[in-house]
Amino acid sequence: SVVVVRSETKAQNVTSKGGQNRGENPFRGTPFEDFFRDGMPEGFAPRGGSPSRSGVGSGVIVDGAGIVLTNNHVVEGADEVTIELSDGREFKAVDIKTDPDSDLAVVRLADAENLPTASLGNSDELVIGDWVLAIGNPFELETTVSAGIISAKGRELGRIRRAKFLQTDAAINPGNSGGPLVNLSGEVVGINTAIASNSGAYQGIGFAIPINQARWVSEQLIKRGSVERGYLGVSISQLSSDMAAKLGSPGQKGVLVTEVMADTPAASAGMQDLDVILSFDGTPVDSPRSLQEVVERSSIGKAHDVVVLRDGKEVTVRVQVKALPEQFGMQQRGRGIAPGGEETFYAKEFGIEVQDKSSVAQDAYEGFDGVLVDRVDPDGLAAEGGLVPGVLIRKVGKTTVSSIDQFEAAIEGETPEEGIVLQIRTPRGNAVILLKKEV
Description:
Layout: E1 2-10, E2 52-63, E3 67-70, H1 72-75, E4 80-84, E5 90-99, E6 104-109, E7 131-136, E8 144-155, E9 165-168, E10 180-183, E11 188-195, E12 206-210, H2 211-224, E13 230-231, E14 234-238, H3 241-247, E15 255-260, H4 265-269, E16 276-280, E17 283-284, H5 288-296, E18 303-310, E19 313-320, E20 322-323, E21 333-337, E22 343-347, E23 352-356, E24 371-376, H6 381-385, E25 392-396, E26 399-400, H7 404-410, E27 420-426, E28 429-435
Antiparallel strand pairs: 1-2, 1-4, 2-3, 3-6, 4-5, 5-6, 7-8, 7-10, 8-9, 9-12, 10-11, 11-12, 13-20, 14-15, 15-16, 16-17, 16-18, 18-19, 21-22, 22-23, 23-24, 24-25, 25-26, 25-27, 27-28
């Protein structure tokens, strides 16, 4: 039930100061690696030239009729995807549904029936210290198995906005992406997704998406082709100790509401700025992402109890959760809050959202200042120019930008028609790209 996922994609060359080869993944071995196909950066393709390229990852058969679960970054943008089974049979993909926010995808195969399927476990039952096996195709060595333990749960990587990861010391290397993490009963408990490494290979830290989350996402992709998520309509941030003391939150518990947006479920229910959300439908929340996780999976159209701390007293608010609108909260330009609580700046005309360099990026960009690309609009100028989440922007033109304030000031007055030149950094070198609207 573990398969090889081969993708073929036409891409474009990037002009690099260091002469970096387009086929080399500049993020290999960093926490950002798995936003990119093994072998080269996914989507990192400024205009000019179009050599074809290929990538290899792993996947899991979850339905005998030919449904494979894998990572979004393994198949995203591919012109052709082929699935190879352990017995040598090959199947062409006829349909691919992806969810970039969780980095998951489902691939439907042509003319497939009675395929061996994986048994899915319950990732909520995992405890730190449990033994697990990572199965996949690292460095194209098919069906490789490595052993380790669950090192931590609930890890947040930042680049993948809607997932809390299992951390394991089972060896995960390039090519493992999309493959299963299994318990000793042979049940899939996670989908291998990322590594943290300075060398490009295993250094004892790997990350997998819990199978309970992967199951929820994949079922929606199979059923409706996309993922429908609930939302409240609030900007939130981590509650600091000083703010907790000021608002009377015992033990620094809860998530701070920094803004209730107009015409949203939260506004209709009477939620207020500076409310501290303590629980949602009885589930305690202690971080922006934990709140996001429970809200997005809640029943849409139904009322839910949200317990908030307001003026030192607990208040229960009934909120009718609605489906998250596409591009919700995206103004032309403005500040926002990433799921991990980091402040962001969004420039719609260039299709880019950035944040200050986070702790996740310290190893990859040690000694370099800049702002980190948090998100790009799929059809925007940034995506067209080759920017991807995880790239460090060092300069706008000749102006150094080491904070989102400086980035905002640097693009003030700039237009897509005139274009902007960005000097960027990847873990393997520097590059210069132009974001300009063709007229």
